[in-house]
Structure formats: structure tokens, C-alpha cells
């Protein structure tokens, strides 16, 4: 019987394979409607790799990862692999994944200080671009503990201090780096910018302190003027007894006088030593109000009423708010009593009344139409005093 040679045997095997291939079509091919999704599962063609790999869903990728990150390799080799992976992510500007890779490299705790310095400084760079300036600064400080003169760590630390508005520290770090390399452009530019901002900050701080001191002196002068007139102040809307109201004239107000009124107007002292106050006129019948930003203490109530009601307000549909028909009151909340204000009296005379307390540095008065049904009902059951 004639024996077949090697070439003939291999030819028969190929014929058999082709015959089987034609009779049994390949079942592992891509489905036409899902080829893009399945193509993405092949590690070589993946655009993005999952952070956590499930061996059942991505067996090929899990196999490659086990080869690359083999725990049997030395910590130095594994740390270097994570560093290279982080660098690839960094080049792609995927800074979050870069941080994760550098962190995994640091977890290996390899004995190579130079490699650890690179991992720290590279992670600092990724954190910097993510806007995590404090985390980046912590990393460069850790790098400098291992290698104090590492120039990249110093540069990145100076940039972090600049972003954190630690201008003096940024200048100091730049100076340290320039002792190593006096021509390092990033350090030169950063130092110039940080020094300029530091000087601006110092100037602004000086201005703020001078302004604060000036305001404190002005407030002190105002308080002295108010105390000299025996005007009683109440700080804020909280109910306070008469003793605490008197104490409101003391030191606590020297730190800053605050007026709680719609426009933030403040009591002021003119060149002649006379006070002007922000004053509220309240019209309870219509839940309306008028705000006078500067009511001079020597002005009469009638003078302001004549100005405010020289024209009929839009909310006075009955046209009854005429200056001659109006009555002005102030309220003693502690006693739940009302005091009728003579229209010809001045603001100072009312503020000096024994039962008037100025709240939040903004005197307030009620205005009603004399003998109107609302006024009668509003006054019913209240004790009303007539101020002489």
C-alpha cells in the first residue's frame, strides 16, 4: 500500500478543515445589528476601559489585566505600570482616571523613592487640573519630603499656592525653586504674578483697616451724639426691657451701626453736629408705607406730611389722606400703648420722649385719617396718650 508523504497528509487535513468550515458556518461572528457594540468589547479596539472589570463580561480584558498587573511581580514593577497607565490617561486629559492610576501605584509602597516622587508629583498635576488645589499641594509636599529639591514638585506647589491665594507662600516656593534653577520660566512668571497679587492684597488690607477705623470713629461720634440727646436705642427686633435698651448705647454698637430699613440708610451727623435719621411712616389701613432716608432732627412732622401728601397717593382711592386730616402716633410696644404726636413737633422732640425707643436705628410712626372708621376701630381698646 502506498504511503502518503507529509505534504499530501497536510493537504488532506486542510481539505477536511475547509469542507467542515463550509458545512458548519462560523457561529462566533458579529451580529450585523450589534457589530459596533461587540467590536467595542475587544480590548485592542476599546475607546474607554471600564474602571471595574467583570471577568464574566470582559474575559479578554480581565486576562490582559492579570498579565499587566500581576501581583507576583515586584512592587516597583507594578508601581511603574500604574505610573505609565496614569501618564497615558493624563495625555488624554482624563485626569480622574490618572489620579486613580497614580494612587494605585502609590499603594504598592515600592522602595524606590524616585518613582514615588514621580507618582506624587504626577498625581498633583492631575489634581491641579481637576481644581483640587489643596489635594495637589498635599501631594507635592509629600514628594518634597522624599526629595526636597525636586523642581517639578516645587513648581506645582507654587502654582497651587497661587490658586489658593497664598501669595506669600507662592513667592517663597518660587524663591526656593529659583535657587535650584534661576532660569526656570514657570517659576519666574509665577513669582512675578504672585508678588504683584501679594502687594495688591496687602494694599487692600491696609485700605480695609483704615476704612474700618474711620467707620469706628464715625460710629463712636454718632453714639456720643445720640447719648447726649438721651435717645434710647433698641438693637434689632427682639423684645428687650428698658435697661437693655439703655445698654444698647454702649460698646456693642461701636463695632458697626446697622440700620434695618428698605434702603440701608443710616443715621448721620452733619457738619453742624445735627442728626438726620432714616424714618418709616406706616399706614396700617392700607398696609402701605413711606420711607424717608434723611429726616433731619429739627424738621417737623407736618413739613414731611405736606410733601408726601402734596399729591394724592395711588392707593388712596377715597382721597382722604390730606395733611390736615392726618394723625401721627408712635407705639410703646412694651406697654401696648399709643402716643399721639403733635404735627408741629420735631423729630428730635419725639425721639427724646421717655417712652420712645428707636429700633434698629430706624424710627417708625403710624399715620391714620382722623375720625375715620378705620382709625376709631384701630384705636379701640388701646390706651392713647397725647404728647404735649
From TrEMBL:
Cross-referenced InterPro entries: Csn1/TTC4_wheel, TPR-like_helical_dom_sf, TPR_rpt
Assigned protein family: Belongs to the TTC4 family.
Name of the protein in question: Tetratricopeptide repeat protein 4
One GO cellular component, as annotated: nucleus
One Pfam family matching this protein: Wheel
Domain spans labelled Cns1/TTC4 wheel: 270-367
Keywords: Repeat, TPR repeat
GO terms of biological process kind: protein folding
Any GO molecular function: Hsp90 protein binding
Transmembrane annotation, as ranges: none
Amino acid at each position: 500500500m502506498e504511503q502518503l508523504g507529509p505534504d499530501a497528509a497536510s493537504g488532506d487535513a486542510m481539505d477536511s478543515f475547509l469542507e467542515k468550515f463550509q458545512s458548519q458556518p462560523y457561529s462566533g461572528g458579529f451580529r450585523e445589528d450589534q457589530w459596533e457594540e461587540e467590536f467595542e468589547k475587544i480590548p485592542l479596539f476599546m475607546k474607554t476601559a471600564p474602571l471595574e472589570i467583570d471577568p464574566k463580561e470582559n474575559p479578554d480584558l480581565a486576562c490582559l489585566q492579570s498579565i499587566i498587573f500581576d501581583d507576583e511581580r515586584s512592587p516597583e514593577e507594578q508601581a511603574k505600570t500604574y505610573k505609565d497607565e496614569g501618564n497615558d490617561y493624563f495625555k488624554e486629559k482624563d485626569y480622574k482616571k490618572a489620579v486613580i492610576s497614580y494612587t494605585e501605584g502609590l499603594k504598592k509602597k515600592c522602595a524606590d523613592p524616585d518613582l514615588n516622587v514621580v507618582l506624587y508629583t504626577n498625581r498633583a498635576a492631575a489634581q491641579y487640573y481637576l481644581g483640587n488645589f489643596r489635594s495637589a499641594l498635599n501631594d507635592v509636599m509629600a514628594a518634597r519630603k522624599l526629595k526636597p529639591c525636586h523642581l517639578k514638585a516645587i513648581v506645582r506647589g507654587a502654582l497651587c499656592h497661587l490658586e489658593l491665594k497664598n501669595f506669600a507662600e507662592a513667592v517663597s516656593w518660587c524663591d526656593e525653586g529659583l535657587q535650584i534653577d534661576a532660569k526656570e520660566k514657570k517659576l519666574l512668571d509665577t513669582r512675578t504674578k504672585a508678588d504683584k497679587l501679594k502687594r495688591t492684597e496687602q494694599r487692600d488690607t491696609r485700605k480695609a483697616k483704615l476704612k474700618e477705623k474711620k467707620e469706628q470713629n464715625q460710629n463712636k461720634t454718632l453714639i456720643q451724639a445720640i447719648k447726649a440727646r438721651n435717645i434710647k436705642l433698641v438693637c434689632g427686633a427682639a423684645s428687650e426691657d428698658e435697661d437693655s435698651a439703655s445698654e444698647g448705647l454702649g460698646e456693642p454698637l461701636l463695632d458697626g451701626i446697622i440700620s434695618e430699613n428698605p434702603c440701608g440708610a443710616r443715621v448721620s451727623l452733619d457738619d453742624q453736629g445735627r442728626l438726620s435719621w432714616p424714618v418709616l411712616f406706616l399706614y396700617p389701613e392700607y398696609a402701605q408705607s413711606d420711607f424717608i432716608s434723611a429726616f433731619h432732627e429739627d424738621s417737623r412732622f407736618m413739613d414731611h406730611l405736606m410733601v408726601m401728601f402734596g399729591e394724592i397717593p395711588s392707593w388712596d382711592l377715597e382721597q382722604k389722606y390730606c395733611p390736615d386730616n392726618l394723625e401721627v402716633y408712635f407705639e410703646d410696644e412694651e406697654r401696648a400703648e399709643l402716643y399721639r404726636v403733635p404735627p408741629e413737633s420735631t423729630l428730635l422732640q419725639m425721639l427724646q420722649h421717655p417712652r420712645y425707643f428707636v429700633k434698629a436705628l430706624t424710627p417708625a410712626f403710624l399715620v391714620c385719617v382722623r375720625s375715620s372708621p378705620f382709625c376709631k376701630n384701630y384705636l379701640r381698646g388701646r390706651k392713647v396718650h397725647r404728647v404735649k
